[in-house]
Amino acid sequence: MTLISEENSQTFLGMKYLKGYVDGLFLMYGQINSATSCALWNPATREVRSLHLPSPIIDYSPNFGLGIDPLTNDYKVVYFLHYKAAVYSCRRDSWRVFKIEDFDKPPPFDKEVRRTYGTAYLNGNYYWLLINNNISTILLFNFGREMFEEIEGPDPDPKSPYVYAFGMMLLDDSIAILNKKMVEKFYYDIWVMIQPGVWNKLITFQCFPHFISCYDSSLILVTRASRLFSYNIRTNKTRYLGFQHSCLKDDAAFGYSGCGVFYYKESLITIKQQEDGELDH
């Protein structure tokens, strides 16, 4: 992916991640000017702010999160890899690398993160969906307290021998998990988190074509004809989004597509570094 802005003419190649959005900002991770790093990006202003990763993670693929401390308006980036973790503060313009003594108990950094539809951000917290032997839990990072916490996922359906956590989404300002199950046919259950570790099953519906993204109370899906549709789980209605591209169906048989689809609201927040390290609102 190549992005050229008037403020910064960097070229971005081989991006592995595009995380977001938070206030119109995205986090990118990949090759930046031939070096592995990450950067904040505002598509509306075309501004880019590079964040130099602390060693020794630059040769690996850590799990990232982007969010904001609601008390200080400080935009932060968090990552963890195996048993290492760090958080970047735009206000401090530096990384805080966590030490083992910073944790009351070691966070579950060794568990597998659901790579597709496996993350969400809400109200100062970032969430990763963890999968371990088909048992789902959630790892939470609070940007204000800069602390990790593990949360239990919903109990699997005992009537279905085949259940796994398909992904995570935001639903009416709540964290929700999509469980895929087999009961003669494939179905999805949507579980909404009422409070940490307490879940309520909201709805069950039959499988649609392949999901590739979500927004508000809707899922974005791609058809065999490479067209984008949205499915509102509240109204049970679908809507054609007016976009068709052949790359959408690439590898669709495996549950993911050759290009990403993101929903976001534009923002004029500038991410140029100020003298005090803050972003200019």
Question: Care to describe what's here?
Answer:
The protein has strands spanning 12-22, 25-32, 35-42, 47-51, 63-69, 74-81, 84-89, 94-97, 112-113, 119-122, 125-132, 135-142, 147-152, 162-170, 175-183, 185-195, 198-206, 210-215, 218-222, 227-232, 237-244. Residues 1-10 and 251-257 have low confidence and may be disordered. The protein is globular. The strands form five sheets. Strands 9, 10, 11, 12 and 13 form a five-stranded antiparallel beta sheet that branches. Strands 1-2-3-4 form a four-stranded antiparallel beta sheet, with no helix packed on it. Strands 5-6-7-8 form a four-stranded antiparallel beta sheet, with no helix packed on it. The protein is mainly beta and 281 residues long.
Shape: globular
Average pLDDT confidence is 77
N-to-C span: 27 Å
Tally the beta strands.
21
Summed up, the helix count is: 0
Amount of helix? under 10%
Low-confidence stretches: 1-10, 251-257
Q: What share of the residues does DSSP label as strand, in percent?
A: over 45%
Q: Which structural class do the helices and strands define? A: mainly beta
Rg over alpha carbons: 19 Å
Major sheet, described briefly?
A: 5 strands, antiparallel
Helix and strand run = EEEEEEEEEEEEEEEEEEEEE
